[in-house]
Write a structure and sequence with these properties.
3-stranded antiparallel beta sheet; 35% strand; 4-stranded mixed beta sheet; 1 helix; mainly beta
Length: 95
């Protein structure tokens, strides 16, 4: 029972950024979101951005609710692959 409760608490907290604001549910379905270093993001003239080889369309780019940058990416570990799926990226309002 304690293990189930711990899992429920940790999954509920997975939507919350370290600074306390909540990642939107339409972008983050669980533990996919986390802070990243803003300088690792490359912006493009059409409003899209790239981060570590992942491409985020203009519609996937959001404004962060704190001074940090964040990314929401899921991973597919099926068949031993580490394929990544970009959901959203949050840019610091100071960028």
């Amino acid at each position: 029972m304690k293990l189930i409760l711990a899992l429920l608490i940790s999954s509920a907290m997975a939507h919350e950024a370290p600074s306390g604001w909540s990642y939107p549910s339409d972008c983050c379905g669980g533990s996919e979101c986390r802070p990243i270093v803003c300088s690792t993001i490359q912006d493009h003239s059409d409003g899209s951005v790239s981060w570590l080889g992942l491409f985020f369309t203009r519609n996937q780019v959001k404004v962060s609710h704190d001074a940090s940058c964040h990314v929401c990416v899921s991973y597919d570990a099926a068949a031993g692959s580490q394929r990544r799926y970009p959901h959203c990226i949050f840019l610091s309002p100071t960028m």
